[in-house]
Amino acid sequence: MLRILVLIAVVGIALSLPKEKVFQKRSYDPSMVAFWPLNAEQGTIDQIDSNDGLPTGVTVDNTKHGDICSAYSFSGNSGSYIEFPNNGRFDTRFSTTLLVYVYPTGVAGPLFHYKRNNWGSHLWQTGPNEGFVRLTGRNDFSSTAELKANVLVQNDWNFFGVTYDYYSGEEKLYLNGAVVKSGNIGSVEIETQYEARMGAVTFDSRYYKGLVTCMQVYNRALSPDEIIEAEKLCTKCPAVVSGDPHLTTFDGRAYSFQGTCWHTLVKDCSNTNPEFEIRAHFAPRDDIDGLKTRTVAVNVTVGKESIIVDKNNKVSGNNNDFKPWKRQIDVSSNNNTVMISFTVKDTTFTLHWNGRKHIFTADVSGTAYRGKVGGLLGNADGDSHNDFMMSDGKVSKDVNEFGDTWKVADMRCE
Ligand SMILES: [Ca+2]
To answer: Where is the signal peptide (predicted)?
Structure first.
């Protein structure tokens, strides 16, 4: 009987998980005690422990807002919230950092609130532009001083949060990596032992309306530099090459470029002997008049390995010369898409190519090559303004001047 019950319990858990846990190649800061990506790929699954969020009355929003492609949408009523069960892992008790990306469209509501039915430690939006935090004392119902600042921008992304250092007593409110308010609340053991709610609590009629993604909890006060690094864990839209060809860089800059023949999309610029390079073959469209071009093949080179995938998704190259366990370029396909991935240092590139539709997307995770790549997809340093970096390292204002420097000299085209 016990065996049957255990089996049922396991099946129940498997069915209730919204998505599979995504295997992370990167390792997180050891002080991170909870991380809910709150995006289309990883949903409400806790990437650190098993405190997966339980969504109620919220939807995944796949509309691109700024450079973020997916987030959770809260409708601003009592039935729209995510509850995060707390097995003790994100009970930080002493020092803490709470960070979250919010896109408010309403007036007020809880962003991360410990204790669903009363005032535990909490981070809120308390006015159209007002961010607010109050940490509460553990078990003695005391409250520390509030910190608030009129800094949130409506209908835009705000990377908002708080740090608290138990030893110094310093508490700091952050927006987009900068301190916007600070105070000293002394050394208080804080109330963080309860479940947390986002969107709505049961005892207050203010409900958050808007989008949220990338909720992070740490058990120490991060420094400003570390908060800027933490922001990079938040999933941005992939770089895209599609159409005639319209391109969007890793940093979210969209432009059109009509070069023909092979061009470099992404290249390792950290070294005179690049470790990897991704190229695309642009050809004039034969189905319409004018100078429109589109992508007809992609070429990926990593070390001595090189493959080309054509518009029929056919893969050729020298990768069969390598034993499977020695191959650096991983290729798989399903339906109309070829997926190519490779990892160098801590950085993984994930590429999707749909030859029939002439659509190529590139995702990058890791930090070793931030700002150390070049090509038509930009330098991936988080700043869209410098994305027209030419092959000599200078930044151009002219799209054709920029694009032409990334034309590949030693590859021929019919
Ligand atoms: Ca850039």
So the answer is: 1-16
